[in-house]
Design goal:
The protein has six helices and two strands, in the order ααααββαα. It is mainly alpha-helical and 168 residues long. The two termini are 28 Å apart.
Length: 168
């Protein structure tokens, strides 16, 4: 990685980037464990994790929003939702005033079981965060938000690139 002038990042910035990469790998590993625990494919578990996360934020997903989150076509998302529904992991509801809008919810039993599955994560991460003053945690949260925006900007740039080997 390079700084804005194209030079190498400083030691602390490099350490932070390595930590973020390790976090991403740990998150992927946790998703694989969730898939094994649920008895589903890792991609299906990742989609269910998105649904659970949205529910926890009181901002439930629609199929279209889930498709954007997991980078699937509408057809592939429909197939994924059908698999999750058949497995008893998902419920589709119509909660909006526009009854055509489908809201995705985890099945009630799954929501309870998922909280138990994620409890060790909450406990360990909570302990790690609790070991630092609130001001430090707030500064880290601000930094992570800035890194998130930077990554979203970079993703938008690379998404606009022509496919490799084509000059379009």
């Amino acid at each position: 990685m390079q700084d804005e002038q194209g030079g190498p990042l400083g030691a602390e910035a490099t350490r932070l980037m390595l930590g973020l990469r390790a976090y991403a790998a740990d998150y992927t590993e946790l998703t694989r464990h969730l898939a094994d625990w649920l008895g589903v494919h890792a991609g299906d578990a990742a989609a269910l994790a998105e649904i659970l996360w949205a529910e926890d934020r009181d901002d439930p997903l629609t199929p279209a929003r889930l498709a954007r989150r997991v980078h699937l076509s509408s057809g592939a998302t429909s197939a994924l939702l059908n698999r999750l529904e058949r497995a008893g992991l998902l419920v589709r509801t119509r909660e909006a005033s526009d009854r055509r809008v489908v809201t995705l919810r985890s099945a009630p039993a799954v929501a309870v079981e998922a909280r138990a599955f994620f409890a060790p994560l909450g406990r360990h991460v909570g302990a790690a965060l609790g070991a630092h003053p609130a001001a430090e945690v707030a500064a880290a949260a601000d930094l992570l938000e800035a890194v998130h925006r930077a990554m979203a900007d970079a993703a938008a740039e690379v998404a606009a690139l022509p496919p490799r080997g084509r000059a379009d």
